[in-house]
Structure formats: C-alpha cells, structure tokens
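Take a look at the protein record below with the fold in mind.
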Amino acid sequence: MSVAPLGQRAPILHMREIDKTFTGGVVALRRMSLEVNEGDFISLLGPSGCGKSTALRLIAGLMPPTLGRIEWEGGQGAGDLGVVFQEPTLMPWATVEQNVWLPFRLRGQSLASVREKIVEALALVGLEKFAKSYPRELSGGMKMRVSIARALVTRPRLILMDEPFAALDEITRQKLNDDLLSLKAKTGATVIFVTHSVFESVFLSDRILVMAARPGRVIREFQIDAPYPRGMEWRTAKEYGEIARETSDTLHGALAPEAAE
C-alpha cells in the first residue's frame, strides 16, 4: 500500500504542549508536542526514564495529561488504536486465534463472525498454521507475532509499539524488524515505536524523535527519506551509518545536564 511522501501526509493526531506529573512531583514530560501523520513510522528514542512509554500511555488514553491536549483529527473511534507491549501479554489458556480475537470479543463480536479477519491477520505475520496452538507451544518471536497480529486485526489508524523486540535475541529482532516493515508496506499502518536502539530506529523509521532525559520532551527530529522496503542493503549503506552516528551523538547530548534544562 503506497504512502504519501514526508511533508505531504494528512495529520491524524496532535500532542499539544503535554505535561505529565506523577504523584510525588516526578515530572515525566514537559511541553511534549508531536504531530502524527497518516503513514508515518515514528520512533521515540531516548534514555531510560525520559517518558517515551508515558507518551504512549497518554496517546492510548491509559492516563490523562496533567496539562496540554491530545487531539485526533476527526475524533477518536473505538478501533483507532492497536497496542503492542514489550511482553506479548497473551492469555496462556487461549489459542492463538482466541488471543487475536480479543479486541473483537471486547466489542461483543463472536469468533465466528470475525474469523476471516483473524485468519488474514495471522497470515500477515506468518502464523496462519498456528491458529489452534497455545502460547506455551510458541517461541518468543512467534508470541510477539501473535501480539502484533492482535494489534493489526482491527486495522487501526495508529499502532503503538513499546519496545516490542527488546527481550529478543539479535537475529530474531532483525527478522522481526524486516517483517514489521513488510507488514507496514502491506497495510499502510501508522506506527509510533519506542526503542532504546539507535540502529533499530534508523532501520525502521522515516521520522526519529530524540527525547531529552527527564523531564522528557522532543529535542530533535530526524527525517529519513530512504525508500521502503528496506533490507540488508540499507543496514550496510553509507547513509545509514551517517544517520546512526548523528542520531547517537544527539542521544548522548540528551543525557547532558543542559539538555534537561
């Protein structure tokens, strides 16, 4: 599915001057602003504790901002969000297809009525033959694929991914990075992806937002015009290395005391 070039995409969500202060006075985010456009693949990159996951939870509506506004273009509907957490969070007593059915089940839709959509989602992640399997029978990478299928099955406007591959070995992680871009090409999904990895962010994203240490906020945006699909030729390209070095330098600068001012 084709996506409009950067700079020509319709906005779908705005974070406007968001502050988030937790009980005890911990300021997680201060003046955090972000515009998400249709078809973006955005990575939030920053040091631990900079508020990346907090930003996702605010967008997901799991907590309110202390100050500021989050606005959806055209308003937010029930199927506008899919979420993939760092752990697959699968129900161990349920089969793969029952786990993917969960978003529909919460809306009162029967498994039979949406089975075709579930089969399609599992096919997108290469697990159509494992519909009747249980999580205990799957590898870590396969469990994460189920979680991704569950996020995709309703074809949401926006998918939030909170370090989904952090616990996986490097080979599995690279394979899932490849697969994620293949899925994005097929579905045209808009993704906000939290990661600690500079290399992962440069491989996946067309926009990287580097966040300062607490209180978190965006201090620099990198736009990456390298075309999709991307593969090993992008990982070994000179431009990839140059962007990774500049992004890494910015990330290290985000740890400096003046970045927190």
Remarks:
- The longest strand covers residues 11-21.
- The chain has a mean pLDDT of 92.
